[in-house]
């Protein structure tokens, strides 16, 4: 009997009136865990009942503790008829299962009903007593900590990073079972909520088991998703990075020495497995399956150019690591930011997409098909990374888009080489620091250097010597899915860059549909990429971070949305301009062309000003360091004479041109250029990015406003063209941004961080865009001072600051293998890396692979960030401004991993909640907007209540994974499903640092006291 | 192509005070957008009309959802649905319970019944306060009335505690409740010149001085008292002549009013009596406010000189209130 769960029902308040006659309610509560149910007494005739129940005790296996939620149902007692349900509370008790987190859950929870929403609140206390269980064959994984955060959590130190963990569980969707025809919508929704809660619990437990198997104690960057496959079932899947984390004694200032010392590790990385042809899996035979040809941004080579990897050292490395690896293991990391020095080189974005036909899952206990699908895609990602000369994929994520029976699976990440020193077993305290500085690649530019051999590059890329160190080669453009490394040297500010695209497709069924979709995918990827590249150049920037490309499928169209944060890396060459050219050099409309050219040049100039991009060119020229290949092209956009020259190469691969040439040969092209120029820059005082840290801004002040916005557009116009659709879609996104700026104008100067756009095509003529982001205020004055400094200095100072704060990070890749080889590998790879796209071989592959196409893409990952030092104390803020009458704890929420001006002293556990809301009186609830507005507000309220009950005061790494909205206005009905997740934390103000040791301790012992929210 | 759904929800509830006021004033979304456009918000942040419309809709929805909570303001502080900073909560409540003086002047002293509510459209037309706003204000009066009706203890304090209102607003509500409860006549033509603030002041006086304990009959001995007052006034005012002439009437008027206070039905006419029996005669004699003050002060004090007058305390209570009411009411 490994655990005893105790629950006490204290009181209720604000209950709804259930008895019209008396305007009162006779409420009682049922408390259920597993198959055991307890009831409280009926508290007659009160809307604010005081039950003060005894402790209800459940004796359960810890396996159940992990899987099951505690279910609390509030009912109205009725003598003559069935008792009416008022609503429910599901409490996930997982946070109570590991010692460092919360010790008690206590507080007011909103009572939630899937039809009526929140109906009053209930005060509950929950405790768990765990007995030690030394059973080696146990099925539970109590004690493994989960973090949504995609960096090493603030108050921990990673002693070991074990690597990728994944799991998925499937079940039938209750909404599609026969019984659903005879039960009420409420019963159906509750069955679904309960099932999903169970499945997430089970999934987490299974992942925990894998982590324990690997010897870890935590999962960082935990990403859980639902696939609502309709008829064919419900899939819950999760990926994460297994780590061994040590809790830092909270008060101690991290010091750099400790930081360096404890690195021990081997790399589990995997150069071994030969690319196996993906489609051969027999398991898939009954499924239609298509994948799209490989496309790698920023570096390419999946074509299997053996030469590239042929170095003898590399071979050696491979042989050695091979043994250490099992086939199923992948050198993937869901983390997006890393301790300084961890990331050696970044190759570029690798991604894969595959189109599948869904089929009923026959045996839920053995979800082989789904596993095989993902396995296939991961293999592909792995082989792409290897082709880029990289042994790991960082910032890795997976996603799906489902429409009817077609499903697009996508995975993406950034190919990278990680520091072998961090992977070496039994590392030494001695001299690590020195080693670091002996390294050929300095921290602020090293990651830009290409990881592959320039002589064997499978594609023509524009390589130059690094503008920083002049020793290694760098590409002209770099795309990644990770966050900007804190030590990177940048010029000016970053900004959000989006590419948006709509493609109509014919309605079709089954295989024809899947084929049509997979035929469209490569073109969409290509166009999105072109757009991104153009917009990047238009902003005079040369690198993208946090790249995330979503392709969403609907019945008659595909939507593509790529978001990333553009930045000017001073290590990379200055971007060329954009050259407009007529179809033939002497085109008639040359006047027109030159006017467009002028507009573009003006826009570039304006953007340079706006984002304060003033790379330290003068300084470099003064130094006169040799640039072996004078980059004549970099100024090319001014010179018309060369344009025709450029043109000749255009067809092959215009992705890597310095001066990007746009050919105007038809009206489409004109449209494209116009749409390029449409993107309005944010109004004065605003910046935006989709990454964790905003390049160029770090002096945050305390203003934080997290928000979610949903917009659905109905396309009433029956015969729309692709162009028209693009325009509509672009306007939709742009208008959303404009709305945000307007609404948040009182926060100026401020930055919208972690802007996460999700697109969907819920019905034939609907486009839905969901955005979650956080607006944070910053100190303008300081920024200006800072930016006035030389970027290089800034980079370094930032870096050292980072080191100090995060120094706890010795991460290691994998423990086992011995590593000298890996080190050599890194030497080889230490050459340079490039960013460019190869579309050259694209066409061929497209045709040859038509049946089994495989697409690659990219995805945004969240990254880590350190907090800035200045700000007001969150806690004192709460206390000082809270009048005595306020009993509700203020809970801040942010999609970032930190809250400005505060320090996280304790992680209380993961928040992972799934809600369904349905209405049959849509008009009365204010139409679809009113319905969704109150639902989202309710979801926020429930998240806050759970965090407060855990003793926390903030949610970090918050995200809304799913927001599925369906309506039937004719029937006056609507339904919405929302899935949110995040990490509940206690954070204290950084200005309290002095006392932090003591506060932190009290925080730990006392933080879990009930917040007593009476 | 149309926007089917458009929502924006912040973790901290976002509210614009200007939009809140427009909502309270009963503007429709479209009218509110117009007002905001004229107000020049568009220049900030390069907003377009669509942006304004979307923002206004979001806020209107938020306010509608909050409205239920505002009906019992104590709930606003411990509800979980909206995270609203405390100073904002105070602002929300204070503004929600604020009212238009012109509107309240119309319903002052009327029974807060359904019948009155039906007449709100007339009042709306007359005062040019939107019907929606009239309804909100009327419902507020009624709600406060209902809650306070049954409570013991000081009226103003009860209102302040239950509705978390500022002192000033709580006093105004106390006045409204007091008028509604006693059904004072305020609608007569002769009373039209009086503002709500005049009445509120008088109500404050009445509440604090008269609401506990009965008002005695004080008619006896008044004649003698009158004779005592007159000499003390002589020579102190230039309108003395007129005063002398009207003294008896005025005095009798005041005494009669006092006498009527024992009868609940007649209490309703308190203000009209004051105007008819005292203020109008004085005004026709062109007394200045200073004259009036002087007269009433001496009139009150002279009662103490009368040996036979046994109700000194009651008299002071009565005259104190009447005096301050008349001062307040004696204007054009």
TrEMBL record, chain A:
Pfam families: C2 (PF00168), YbjQ_2 (PF23025), YbjQ_3 (PF23028), YbjQ_4 (PF23128). One of its GO terms (cellular component) is cell cortex. GO terms for molecular function: calcium ion binding; calcium-dependent phospholipid binding. Residues 1-109 form the C2 domain. Transmembrane segments: none annotated. SMART domains: C2. CDD domains: C2_KIAA0528-like. Keywords: Calcium, Cell membrane, Cell projection, Cytoplasm, Cytoplasmic vesicle, Lipid-binding, Membrane, Metal-binding, Protein transport, Transport. One of its GO terms (biological process) is insulin receptor signaling pathway. Its main location: membrane. It comes from the Eukaryota. It is found in: Cell membrane; Cell projection, Ruffle; Cytoplasm, Cell cortex; Cytoplasmic vesicle membrane. PANTHER family: C2 DOMAIN-CONTAINING PROTEIN 5. This is C2 domain-containing protein 5. It comes from Astatotilapia calliptera.
TrEMBL record, chain B:
One of its GO terms (cellular component) is nucleus. GO terms for molecular function: fibroblast growth factor binding. This is Fibroblast growth factor (acidic) intracellular binding protein a. It comes from the Eukaryota. One of its GO terms (biological process) is platelet aggregation. InterPro entries: FIBP (IPR008614). Pfam families: FIBP. It comes from Astatotilapia calliptera (Eastern happy).
């Amino acid at each position: 009997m490994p655990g005893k769960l105790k629950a006490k029902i204290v009181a209720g308040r604000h209950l709804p009136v259930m008895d019209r006659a008396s305007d009162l309610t006779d409420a009682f509560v049922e408390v259920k865990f597993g198959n055991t149910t307890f009831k409280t007494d009926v508290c007659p005739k009160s809307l604010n009942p005081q039950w003060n129940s005894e402790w209800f005790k459940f004796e359960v296996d810890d396996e159940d503790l992990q899987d099951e939620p505690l279910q609390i149902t509030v009912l109205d007692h009725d003598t003559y008829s069935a008792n009416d349900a008022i609503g429910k509370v599901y409490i996930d008790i997982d946070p109570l299962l590991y010692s460092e987190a919360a010790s008690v859950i206590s507080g007011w929870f909103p009572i939630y009903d899937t039809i009526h929403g929140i109906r009053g609140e209930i005060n509950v206390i929950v405790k768990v007593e765990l007995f030690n269980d030394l059973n080696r064959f146990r099925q539970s994984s109590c004690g493994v900590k989960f973090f949504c955060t995609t960096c090493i959590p603030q108050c921990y130190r990673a002693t070991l990073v074990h690597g990728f963990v994944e799991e998925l569980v499937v079940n039938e969707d209750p909404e599609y079972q026969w019984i659903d025809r005879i039960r009420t919508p409420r019963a159906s929704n509750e069955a679904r909520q309960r099932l999903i809660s169970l499945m997430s619990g089970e999934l987490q437990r299974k992942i925990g088991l894998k982590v324990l198997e690997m010897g870890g104690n935590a999962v960082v960057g935990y990403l859980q998703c639902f696939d609502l496959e309709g008829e064919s079932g419900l899939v819950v899947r999760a990926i994460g990075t297994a780590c061994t984390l040590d809790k830092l004694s909270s008060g101690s200032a991290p010091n750099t020495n400790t930081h360096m010392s404890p690195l021990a590790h081997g790399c589990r990385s995997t150069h071994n497995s030969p690319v196996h042809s993906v489609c051969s899996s027999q398991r898939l035979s009954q499924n239609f399956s298509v994948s799209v040809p490989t496309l790698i941004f920023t570096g390419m080579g999946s074509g299997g150019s053996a030469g590239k990897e042929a170095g003898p050292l590399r071979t050696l490395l491979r042989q050695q690591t091979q043994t250490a690896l099992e086939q199923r293991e992948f050198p993937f990391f869901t983390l997006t930011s890393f301790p300084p020095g961890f990331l050696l080189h970044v190759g570029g974005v690798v991604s894969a997409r595959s189109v599948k036909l869904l089929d009923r899952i026959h045996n839920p206990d053995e979800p082989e098909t789904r596993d095989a699908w993902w396995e296939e895609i991961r293999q592909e990602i792995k082989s792409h990374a290897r082709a880029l000369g990289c042994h790991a994929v960082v910032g890795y994520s997976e996603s799906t888009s489902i429409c009817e029976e077609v499903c697009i699976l996508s995975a993406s990440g950034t190919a990278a080489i990680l520091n072998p020193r961090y992977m070496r077993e039994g590392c030494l305290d001695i001299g690590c620091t020195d080693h670091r500085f002996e390294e050929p690649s300095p921290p602020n530019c090293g990651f830009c250097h290409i990881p592959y051999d320039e002589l064997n590059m499978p594609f023509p890329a524009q390589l130059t010597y690094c503008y920083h160190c002049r020793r290694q080669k760098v590409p002209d453009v770099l795309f990644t899915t990770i966050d900007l490394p804190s030590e990177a040297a940048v010029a000016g500010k970053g900004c959000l860059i989006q590419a948006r695209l709509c493609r109509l497709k014919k309605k079709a069924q089954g295989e024809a549909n899947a084929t049509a979709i997979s035929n469209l995918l490569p073109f969409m990827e290509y166009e999105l990429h072109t757009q991104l590249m153009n917009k990047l150049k238009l902003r005079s920037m040369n690198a993208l971070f946090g790249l995330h490309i979503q392709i969403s499928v609907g019945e008659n169209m595909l939507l593509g949305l790529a978001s990333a944060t553009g930045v000017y890396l001073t290590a990379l060459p200055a971007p060329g301009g954009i050259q407009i050219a007529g179809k033939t050099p002497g085109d008639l409309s040359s006047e027109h062309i030159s006017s467009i050219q002028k507009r573009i040049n003006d826009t570039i100039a304006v953007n340079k000003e706006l984002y304060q991009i003033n790379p330290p060119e003068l300084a470099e020229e003064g130094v006169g360091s040799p640039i072996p290949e004078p980059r004549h092209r970099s100024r090319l956009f001014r010179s018309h004479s060369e344009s025709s020259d450029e043109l000749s190469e255009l067809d092959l691969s215009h992705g890597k041109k310095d001066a990007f040439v746009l050919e105007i040969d038809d009206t489409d092209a004109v449209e494209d250029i116009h749409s390029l120029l449409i993107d309005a820059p944010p109004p004065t005082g605003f910046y935006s990015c989709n990454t964790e840290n905003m390049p160029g801004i770090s002096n945050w002040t305390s203003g934080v406003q997290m928000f979610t916005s949903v917009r659905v557009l109905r396309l009433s116009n029956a015969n729309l063209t692709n162009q028209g659709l693009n325009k509509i879609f672009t306007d939709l996104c742009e208008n959303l941004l404009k709305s945000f700026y307007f609404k948040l104008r009182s926060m100026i100067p401020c930055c919208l961080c972690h802007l996460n756009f999700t697109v969907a095509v819920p019905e034939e003529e609907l486009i839905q865009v969901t955005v979650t982001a956080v607006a944070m205020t910053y100190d303008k004055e300081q920024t200006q001072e800072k930016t006035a400094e030389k970027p290089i200095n800034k980079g370094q100072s930032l870096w050292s600051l980072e080191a100090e704060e995060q120094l706890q990070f010795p991460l290691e890749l994998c423990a086992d293998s011995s590593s000298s080889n890996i080190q050599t590998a890194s030497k080889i790879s230490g050459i340079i890396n490039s960013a460019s796209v190869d579309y050259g071989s694209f066409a061929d592959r497209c045709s040859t692979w038509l049946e089994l196409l495989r697409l690659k893409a990219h995805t945004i990952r969240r990254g880590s960030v350190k907090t800035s030092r200045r700000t007001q104390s969150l806690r004192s803020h709460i206390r000082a401004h809270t009048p005595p009458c306020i009993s509700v704890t203020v809970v801040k929420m942010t999609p970032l991993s930190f809250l400005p001006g505060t320090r996280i002293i304790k992680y209380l556990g993961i928040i992972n909640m799934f809600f369904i809301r349905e209405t049959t009186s849509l008009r009365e609830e204010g139409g679809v907007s009113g319905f969704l507005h109150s639902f989202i507000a309710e979801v926020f309220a429930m998240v806050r209540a759970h965090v407060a009950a855990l003793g926390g005061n903030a949610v970090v790494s918050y995200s809304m994974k799913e927001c599925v909205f369906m309506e039937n206005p004719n029937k006056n009905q609507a339904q919405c499903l929302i899935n949110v997740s995040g990490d509940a934390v206690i954070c204290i103000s950084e200005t309290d640092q002095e006392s932090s040791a003591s506060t932190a301790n009290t925080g730990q012992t006392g933080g879990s006291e009930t917040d007593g929210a009476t | 192509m149309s926007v089917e759904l458009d929502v924006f929800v912040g973790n901290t509830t976002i509210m614009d005070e200007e939009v809140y006021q427009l909502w309270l004033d009963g503007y429709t979304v479209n009218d509110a957008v117009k007002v905001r456009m004229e107000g020049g918000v568009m220049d900030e942040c390069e907003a377009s009309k669509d942006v304004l419309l979307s923002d206004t809709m979001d806020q209107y929805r938020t306010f509608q959802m909050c409205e239920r909570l505002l009906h019992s303001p104590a709930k606003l502080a411990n509800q979980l649905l909206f995270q609203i900073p405390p100073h904002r909560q105070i602002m929300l409540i204070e503004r929600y319970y604020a009212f238009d003086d012109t509107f309240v002047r119309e319903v002052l002293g009327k029974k807060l019944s359904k019948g009155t509510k039906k007449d709100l459209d007339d009042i709306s037309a007359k005062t040019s306060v939107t019907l929606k706003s009239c309804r909100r204000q009327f419902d507020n009066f009624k709600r406060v009335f209902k809650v306070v009706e049954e409570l013991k203890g000081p009226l103003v304090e009860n209102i302040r505690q239950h509705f978390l209102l500022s002192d000033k607003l709580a006093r105004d509500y106390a006045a409204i409740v007091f008028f509604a409860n006693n059904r004072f006549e305020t609608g007569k033509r002769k009373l039209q010149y009086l503002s709500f603030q005049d009445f509120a002041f008088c109500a404050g006086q009445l509440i604090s001085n008269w609401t506990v304990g009965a008002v005695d009959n004080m008619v006896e001995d008044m004649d003698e008292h009158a004779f005592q007052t007159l000499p003390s006034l002589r020579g102190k005012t230039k309108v003395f002549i007129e005063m002398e002439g009207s003294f008896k009437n005025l005095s009798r008027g005041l005494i009669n009013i006092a006498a009527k206070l024992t009868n609940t039905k007649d209490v309703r006419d308190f203000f009209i009596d004051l105007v008819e029996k005292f203020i109008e005669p004085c005004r026709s004699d062109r007394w200045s406010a200073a004259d009036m003050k002087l007269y009433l002060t001496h009139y009150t004090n002279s009662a103490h000189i009368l040996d036979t007058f046994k109700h000194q305390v009651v008299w002071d209570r009565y005259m104190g209130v009447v005096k301050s009411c008349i001062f307040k009411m004696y204007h054009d």
